[in-house]
Amino acid sequence: MLKYPCLVLDHDDTVVQSEATVNYPFFCYILNQFRPGTKITLREYAEGCFRLGFADMCRKWYHFTEQEIVDEYHGWQEYIVDHIPAPFPGIGDIIRRQKEAGGKICVVSHSCIQNITRDYETHFGILPDDIYGWDLPEELRKPSPWPLEQIMAKYGYTQSQLLVVDDVKLAWKMARSAGVPIAFAGWGRRDCPEITEEMTRLCDFSFASTKDLEQFLFGGV
Fold first, then answer.
1. Is-contact 203 182, C-beta < 8 A?
2. Cβ–Cβ < 8 Å for 22, 54
3. Sign of the alpha-carbon dihedral angle for 173, 123, 136, 23
4. Which among 1, 55, 99, 127 counts the fewest CB atoms within 10 Å?
């Protein structure tokens, strides 16, 4: 019997290594287009996304207009067509074991359906059961509990049958609002000790590697 019949996975920097190789480089480009001469470090980018979420970081730190946020998103969609991030070692084993045991894989992410499905097909040869991503209206995206409520309603799961696995504070807010347990995906935040300390303190569980999470979920690996 599965410990958690439904794993609710984040995508960027939980399943794929996209921050440093895809999302941050593109944001540096777009920031220079919209706010010429403005710089942001990778650590600042990580902190902004962690504490505010990407859209609010753009609004509060750089005063992006709503149209600029839309334009950034469309440019990013074009950029990711030719920039496919690698998965974290071992995450595919967790996804496959969950599915082979009859469990569900749901994705709640600030990525869009287009690149989530592309990455899953490319790296794992399967698709998630459900995706709740950036394509949703902003008020329904993480940290709203709406995606978790939809998953529970659709499959008849109780709160304790879901486990959120994520690396950002917005996911903790979402999980807490829905009464669902959350595990910190620490393998994607090894270079961010402040984030690791805070999420380890806040979350129900914390894992430094995908192997640690696999052991927790399935026992001997």
1. yes
2. no
3. positive
4. 1
Cα atoms in the Cβ-side hemisphere of radius 13 Å centred on 108: 31
Which tokens sit at 79?
Answer: 């950029």
Retrieve residue 219's tokens: 């026992």
User: Tens of pLDDT along 110-140?
Assistant: 999 999 999 999 999 999 999 999 999 999 9
Residues written for the chain: 221
Question: Do 165 and 14 touch, CB atoms closer than 8 A?
Answer: yes
Q: Which of 164, 183, 182, 112 lies closest to 141 in space, CA to CA? A: 112
Given CA atoms 27, 32, 33, 35 in this order, what sign does their dihedral have? positive
| Cα–Cα distances in angstroms (integers) from residue 161 to residues 50, 57, 103, 151, 158, in the given order | 26, 33, 10, 11, 5
